[in-house]
Amino acid sequence: MTCADRILTPGLLLPAALACAEPAPTTDDLAFGMGIPESALPIVLDMSPMPGMPPDPTNRVADDPAAARLGQFLYYDRRLSGSGEFACATCHDPEAGFSDGLPLSEAAGTTSRHAPHLWDVGYQRWFLWDGRCDSLWCQAAAPIEAQGEMDGDRMAVARLVTTDPDLGPAYTAIFGESPDLEDMTRFPEHGRPLDDPTHPDAAAWAAMAPQDQDAVNRVYTNVTKSIAAYERRLVTGPTRVDRFVTALAAGTPEGLDVLTAEEVLGLVLFTGEGNCHLCHGGPLLSNREFHSVGLGSRPWLDPNDLGRFDGIDKLRASAFNAAGPWSDDPGGDAAMRIERLVQSGEQVGQFKTPSLRNITLSPPYMHGGHFEDLYQVVDNYNKLEEDMGLGHLETFMVPLGWGAAEVDAVVAFLGALESEPLEPSLLVAPDTPD
Length: 434
Hints:
Blueprint: H1 3-8, H2 13-20, H3 27-33, H4 41-45, H5 65-75, H6 88-91, H7 136-145, H8 154-163, H9 167-175, H10 200-206, H11 210-231, H12 240-250, H13 261-271, E1 290-291, H14 308-317, H15 333-340, E2 351-352, H16 374-383, H17 404-415
Antiparallel strand pairs: 1-2
C-alpha cells in the first residue's frame, strides 16, 4: 500500500498523514543546506545570544541607576576639560558610533591612537588599545587628564562636582559628604600628577598634603566610576545575525532569510577559511585579548609603539588598577589578574581585539586608524602584504587568496552585526545630573 493509498483508506487518515509528513529539519540539516560546515556550526551558534552584563566588583556603583545618570551627565560635560571645550563625547561621539571618525583623535592635542568605539565596553576585561587599565572606571580616568585629550586635572574636576549647585547634591546623594574643597590653602585651583614635575599642575599637586591628595583622588575616582556606570549601559541590541542564529538553533527555516545569500557566504568564510573567529569569536565577536595582525606603520603613528608590552608596565604602575587603593575590590579576581600577567617579547606590537558588533558605525579602523573602510580591513587580512614594523605576525594568519567577491561577502556579514539603535535618551546629556 502506498502512502496515497493509506491516506484514502477509511480509518487510516490521521495515522497516514503523520506517517507521510516530512520530518522537521534539524539545526544540522539547515546548516548543511546553507553551506555551513559541521566544524563551523558550534562557532556560529556561539555568536548569540549576548550574555548579561558581568558585574564589576571594583566599582560599587557600577549598576547604580543614580550613578549612571550622573555619569551620563558628566560624559557630555565639557567643564571636565582644561579649556572647557572638550568632553568624553568629543572623541566617543554617539553620532560617530561612539568613536570620532578620525584616524587619531583631535581635542586639546592629537592622540597617538585611534579612539576605540564603546559599544559593549562593559564586557571587556582590559581597556584601551594596550590594556593599561583593567576596569572601565580606570579607563575613564585617563582621557580627562591626558594633555593631548581633555587636558583637565583631578583637582578642578573634584571641586566642580562637589561645589556645583547641580552636581554637588547629585554627587552627595550617591557618595556621601565630601571634604571642603573650596579651602584654597589646602586645595589649589588646579593639580594633577604629571611626568613633568615643572608643570604648574604637577608642582601644585606635589605640594599638597598626602591626606588631601587622597581626598581629591577619592572624589575623582567616584567621578570616573559614575562615567563607567553610564558606559556599561551602551549595550548593542539584537542584530540580524542574532536572529539568524536563534532560528538556526531552533531549527526554524523561515527565520533564516533574515540574512542574504551573500551575508551567509560571509559567515561561512568568517568561521571557516578565514579563521576570523580565532580572535573575533563568541557573542562579543572578540576574545578580549591582544594580537599582532601584520599592520605596517603610517606617517601619523609612532613607529616605536610597543602596544601591549608597554601596557602591562603602565597597568602595574597605575594607582587606579583593580588592586589599587581606589578599587572597591582590591583583593578580588580582577586584582589577581595583574599578578598572573606574564610579560614577554611576544607582546611587542600587540593591540586589543575590538568587538565587531556595530563595527560598521565607527570607521576608520584598527588601533591607528589604518583603514578607511571594512573592505580594506578584510582585504588586509586576505593578502597580508603590509611591511610590519615591531612585533611579528600571529602564526595562524596566512594569506587567503580570496577574490573581491569573497571579501565583499565578509564585509556584508559584518554589516549584519549592526544592532537596533539604543534608546535615544542614552545618547544625549540628561537635563539634570539627578
